[in-house]
Inverse folding.
């Protein structure tokens, strides 16, 4: 339904005997897949497995008994109490669940244990199929510093600068001149925007150097400072790659993930609205080279910083797992990335080549969070009293919730993703706004109204936004959604009159319903 | 029936009359009125035809009113029946109660009974979804009751601390 193109070279084959999918060399078969995750991504992976005729096992924490992935899977095993450290992060509990159910493969989703090389190794050591890259590739990309050194050796461009702190002012000044102004001075102990100073001209360098060191000493009790080239108004652009077990690596084009709040992606789109064909191709080639350099297998993503001013791009890091925003790539390429992960893990060589792949149309994803934009984006867990998900052509909702579900307090606030496709960017934007208008989540606050304002913003529509786009001013502007007070007053007046005229109020809509009381009611 | 309905800090005095099943007339004090045809397709959904205009809304009960979804924006609305207002005031609702805005876990209780606090003084920190939310005293006063302890899990609207006006 969502495959835009019907290209025989890339459409999946019929699910003939995919149960017990014929294994490649040294690869345990995918007889039954355990999904070591929760929420929308677990639901997403379960769907792909079921389409391929592969039975699934969900794992869940005690508080997630009611979660959608548990309801959708063929089997489910409780792996511990609510805190992630006592459930979803406990590798041995997950392996035990696999033993218990006879699962032969583990899909880690994203987050949790997905980029944990030791866990990946323990899965393999247990004789199971790890649906992800080899532990050595996870390890190689795991540390930013090590990954950077490795990428430099592979000829991949990284942000020019030093990795180690510089001791002498004269050395620092020489390096700054070499990489070219503007440069950024960064305190090694800093982070989150603190302990950084931008220097535009050589004559300002000595003063800035001393000020940054002094500040670092005072703020972080460590005056180690390193420097990097300052990339002006950068975009965060990433390239999706797929590699099989036989050394074939292809890319599935880019995603623009520059709309971020607190370094968290909020909206993603593909294609990137400002990338030239030549830059796209160059960036993609670098991503393929980076993946190949670490012996990558499966689905992975190389993140780049792209300067709109100079057209240059720099490797940031590689995410050695499926990304949250993978659906936008699926919509423009027609490739189901989770099915691809499963087929690659089963030992199948890539069934299409780079020249079979094309970007068709435009796709946008909005991450729906259970948070209150009008209240400084405070988390808004609680019971979803009513849910109307949007539909219609080229609208996809990957959701982990349902009406009556209590969004727990223990995990990430992302409850769903809205992904829309259009022939071009304008159509994708207007379709997204229409879908956001249909989308109703009642009982808890969500970021839905925020997205309606964001997607209609002229600067977003222009497409030239950078990672600094969501400034405090813009956040406030988008959070202040139009409120139809008079309509709310009328609804409340009628609801109250109804309640007052009824002898007994309906019990189910009381605000304070707790999971405990609800289960008590069921038992009676 | 007359109600005082507060939304976005503005109080509206509204009269609502049931005319026939599902049909209401809603009038603002000193203004005209609207004909409203209302159905409830699901328990929380509240579909209104207001003078023929279609409004898909939702109404979820909260302790002091409703959370009304209008075009996807969830607006908190408080409703007061003027006939009962005088009763409520008589109970001595002076002072302030700090309640949890959301379900979560109490990570810090920053006051003890007897403490003097200023308006805006942080009282309790509740954590949910890896984010800490600092709850502040609504008034200048003295802490007379602490109803929760650190580590405790609380529901939305749970009363945490009671403060008596100074």
């Amino acid at each position: 339904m969502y495959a835009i193109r019907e290209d025989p070279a890339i459409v999946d084959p019929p699910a003939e005997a995919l149960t017990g999918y014929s294994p490649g060399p040294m690869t345990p078969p995918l007889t039954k897949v355990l999904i070591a995750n929760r929420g929308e991504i677990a639901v997403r992976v379960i769907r792909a497995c079921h389409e391929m005729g592969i039975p699934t096992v969900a794992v869940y924490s005690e508080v997630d008994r009611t979660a959608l992935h548990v309801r959708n899977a063929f089997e489910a095993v409780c792996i511990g109490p609510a805190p992630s450290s006592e459930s979803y992060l406990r590798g041995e509990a997950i392996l035990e669940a696999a033993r218990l159910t006879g699962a032969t493969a583990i899909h880690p989703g994203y987050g949790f244990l997905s980029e944990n090389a030791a866990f990946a190794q323990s899965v393999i050591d247990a004789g199971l199929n790890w649906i992800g890259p080899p532990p050595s590739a996870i390890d190689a990309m795991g540390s930013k510093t090590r990954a950077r050194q490795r990428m430099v050796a592979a000829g991949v461009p990284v942000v020019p600068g030093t990795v180690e702190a510089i001791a002498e002012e004269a050395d620092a000044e020489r390096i700054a001149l070499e990489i070219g102004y503007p440069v950024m001075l960064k305190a090694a102990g800093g982070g989150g925007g603190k302990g950084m100073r931008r220097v535009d001209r050589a004559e300002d360098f000595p003063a800035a150097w001393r000020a940054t060191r002094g500040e670092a000493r005072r703020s972080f009790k460590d005056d180690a400072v390193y420097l990097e080239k300052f990339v002006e108004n950068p975009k965060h652009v990433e390239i999706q790659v797929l590699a099989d077990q036989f050394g074939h690596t292809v890319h599935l084009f880019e995603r623009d993930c520059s709309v971020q709040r607190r370094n968290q992606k909020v909206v993603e789109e593909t294609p990137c609205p400002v990338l030239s064909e030549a830059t796209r191709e160059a960036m993609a080639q670098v991503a393929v080279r980076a993946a190949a350099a670490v012996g990558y297998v499966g689905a992975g993503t190389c993140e780049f910083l792209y300067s709109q001013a100079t057209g240059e791009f720099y490797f940031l890091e590689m995410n050695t797992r499926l990304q949250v925003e993978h659906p936008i790539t699926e919509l423009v390429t027609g490739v189901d990335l989770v099915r691809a992960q499963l087929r690659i893990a089963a030992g199948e060589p890539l069934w299409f080549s780079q020249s079979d792949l094309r970007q068709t149309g435009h796709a946008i994803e909005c991450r729906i969070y259970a948070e209150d934009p009008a209240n400084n984006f405070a988390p808004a867990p609680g019971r979803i009293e009513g849910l109307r998900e949007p539909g219609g052509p080229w609208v996809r909702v990957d959701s982990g919730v349902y009406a009556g579900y209590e969004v727990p307090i223990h995990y990430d606030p992302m409850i769903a993703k809205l992904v829309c496709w259009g022939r071009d960017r304008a159509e994708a934007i207007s379709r997204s706004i229409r879908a956001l208008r249909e989308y109703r989540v009642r009982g808890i606050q969500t970021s839905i109204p925020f997205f309606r304002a964001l997607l209609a913003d002229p600067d977003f529509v222009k497409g030239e936004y950078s990672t600094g786009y969501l400034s405090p001013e813009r956040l406030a502007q988008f959070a202040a959604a139009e409120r139809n007070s008079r309509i709310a007053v009328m609804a409340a007046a009628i609801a109250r009159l109804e309640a007052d005229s009824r002898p007994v109020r309906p019990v189910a809509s009381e605000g304070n319903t707790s999971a405990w009381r609800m289960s008590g009611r069921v038992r009676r | 029936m007359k109600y005082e309905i507060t939304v976005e800090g503005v109080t509206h005095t509204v009269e609502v009359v049931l005319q026939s099943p599902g049909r209401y007339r809603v009038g603002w004090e000193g203004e005209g009125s609207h004909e409203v045809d209302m159905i409830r397709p699901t328990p929380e959904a509240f579909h209104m035809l207001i003078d023929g205009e279609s409004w898909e809304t939702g109404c979820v009960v909260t302790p002091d009113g409703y959370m009304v979804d209008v075009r996807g924006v969830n607006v908190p609305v408080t409703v007061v029946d003027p006939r009962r207002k005088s009763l409520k005031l008589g109970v001595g609702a002076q002072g302030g109660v700090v309640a949890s805005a959301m379900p979560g876990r109490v990570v810090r209780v920053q006051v003890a009974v007897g403490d003097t606090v200023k308006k805006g003084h942080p009282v309790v920190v509740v954590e949910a979804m890896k984010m800490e939310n600092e709850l502040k005293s609504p008034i200048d006063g003295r802490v007379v009751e602490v109803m929760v302890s650190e580590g405790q899990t609380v529901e939305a609207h749970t009363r945490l601390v009671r403060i008596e006006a100074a």
